[in-house]
Every structure is written in C-alpha cells, then in structure tokens.
Amino acid sequence: MSARWGPDGHEDTVEIDGRLLAVRAAEGDAEAFEVLVHRHSAAMLQLAERLTGSRTDAEDVVQDAFVSAWRSLPEYRGEAGFATWLHRIVTNRCLNVLRTRRPTTALDAVAEPAAPEHQSSPARAAESQAAVRDLAEAMGALSAEQRVCWILREIEGQPYETIAQAVGIRPEAVRARVFRARRMLTEAMAVWR
Predict the structure, then answer these.
(1) Which residue among 38, 91, 175, 176 is the one 20 to 30 A from 157 at the CA level?
(2) 176: buried, middle or exposed (CB in 10 Å: 19+, 13-18, 0-12)?
(3) Is the full-model pTM beyond 0.85?
(4) What is the share, in percent, of the chain residues with pLDDT greater than 70?
C-alpha cells in the first residue's frame, strides 16, 4: 500500500489498497466506501450488463450489490481482494436475476437501426439480423449457470479459479459448464460458419 499526497495536502486515496479501504469502510468510514464504489462501479456495471443482457437489470444488480457489500463489510475478512469479493456478489445477484427472469421481448421484435447504404446491402443487413437472432436464441438456451460461466471466461477473460470463487463452485464444474456452453453455441451457430 502506498499513499500519495495530493496538491491540497490531503491523502490521495486512489493509490490506497482496496483491502485497507474495505477495512476502513467496515469501521464506518463512508468516504472509504465511496472511493470503493467509485473505483469499481463501472467494471461491475459492465459485468452485470454482460451477464444479464439488460442495462436496467444491471443497474439494479450493481446498486443492490453495493448495498449488500456495505452491510456485509464487517464479515469481509480480506482473504480475497475487495474487487474479487464484490465480483462474487455481483455475479450471484446476476444469477438470481437470470434464474427468476420471465421471458422478454425477442431481439428480432426490436427494430435494428439501418446501416448507411455504403456499408451494407439489404441482403447483408438481413443476414446479420438473422445471425444476431440465432445467437440470442442460442444464448437464451443456455442455463443461467452456463451463461454466466461462459461470459466470465470467454468475454471477461477470467481464469477458471476466479470464476469458481465468484459462482461458488469448483473449477472443474466451471470448466464443464464452459465446455457445454461452447458446444451448444457452436452447434447452434454452425450454419453461420
């Protein structure tokens, strides 16, 4: 941990370790928690949006996750970094949303903005729209657990061990879910190769 001093003579909290900020926040330091929220909110929102597929759901998940994190800070032991701990909270909230979600409007029911004429022909636009629809259907066919593991691995680039911690399962189970998701997506998208 290395603290810097800003031009106003106050400690620059950007360089302070997340674990120390979490300890301070657990002791009631609202400013320390505010720094953690500011530091991690964009990444957690991006993660939640990728996992849920909805900006609105993602915003709700992240807000709920930060409230939960604030309440749970006294139990935070610092065994994992704060970002890893928060990542797990957000991932679990997303899984809950995905498990309880009712079917939503299909992507093909929403009009896609037209591409400028010089970039796309009508045939290419129709083909792209069909491919996006097929991918959305294939992603929708995955279980919530498969989808989360696949997105964390393939989109977020997380190692299997980190995903296992976030989802609360063994790394071998993560590998199996990612493998099954890849196989299902490959089969569903085979016509587009």
Answers:
(1) 38
(2) middle
(3) no
(4) 80
